[in-house]
Amino acid sequence: MRRNCSEQNGFTLAELLVVVGIVAVLVAIAIPVFIAQLDRANAGADEANIRSGYGNAQSLAISSDVAVGDVFVLLGDGTVSKQTAGGGMPVNVYTTKGESKNVTGASETGKVMIAGQEVEWGVGQTIVYTVIEGKKVVILASSGSSSGGGEDAPDDSPEFFYVSTENARYQVKVEINLDTAGAQTIAAGTIFYCNGKYYMAAYPEWLDPNQFNPTSNISEINPDKLVAYSEKELSVVPGDLAEKDGRLYICTKCDWLPTWRDLGVSL
């Protein structure tokens, strides 16, 4: 007896669509989880490298001939290299791969406790260690990043300057909006670089860097001096730098009362 079999094995279109839909849902769930895990892994690696660098910097600060204000830069192998004034950034400088807010145990503000210090960093930053009084080391995530290879150190660039305090030396990145190719109007509060110095406009000003003559509206910034933060008239002048609640401020103008601008730097 012969059996006529016309049935064929296989999946229907509806079944295939169900499978594709399930796979799509699983992928949609898995990708964010994978990215979050990768972010935590990168931040954890940063934390480990920063701790390692701190140990090396603190050891050098204690055992070698260093001075207050000396700066060490974290390298890719977890060691540190002393940054010399006017010298280039060392080769193989470590740049952070994650953000401190993704470290397990980070504070609500995204800071991580390392060696008794609250440290905050983002992607692509360099880590520096500044020697303070008592041969202690302060950790700072620099605003400027570098991949090494002989590039200039950030403090050699007009976009960076160092602010000296009683205990440490902090690197500050500023916005310089002056086109040195010709004259232009700059906005009040603009920090700019001209003839080797840093200035700030208290009011809108028309400037030509080729014929630069500071006026009463143009104030020179002195990174080596911090004044006492005050809300009172005449106690400060535009261009003054001051510390308040662990933050760095610059006086942008002083008509009746001084106006302060947060430079985004934690001291």
Which keywords apply here?
four-stranded mixed β-sheet, 30% strand, Seminal Fluid Protein  PDC-109 (Domain B), 17 strands, alpha+beta, four-stranded antiparallel β-sheet, 267 residues, 2 domains
Task: Provide structural commentary.
- It is a single chain.
- This protein starts with 12 loop residues before the first helix and ends with a strand.
- Helix content is 19%, strand content 30%.
- The strands form six sheets. A four-stranded antiparallel sheet has the order 2-1-5-6, with helices on one face. It has a four-stranded mixed sheet with strand order 14-15-16-17, with no helix packed on it. Strands 10-11-13 form a three-stranded antiparallel sheet, with no helix packed on it.
- The protein has two domains: 29-155, no CATH class; 184-266, Seminal Fluid Protein  PDC-109 (Domain B) (Ribbon), CATH 2.10.10.
- It has one helix at residues 13-63; strands at 71-74, 80-83, 112-114, 117-119, 126-132, 136-142, 160-164, 169-173, 184-186, 191-194, 197-201, 205-207, 218-220, 227-228, 241-244, 247-254, 258-266.
- Strand 3 (112-114) and strand 4 form a beta hairpin.
- It is α+β, with helices and mostly antiparallel strands.
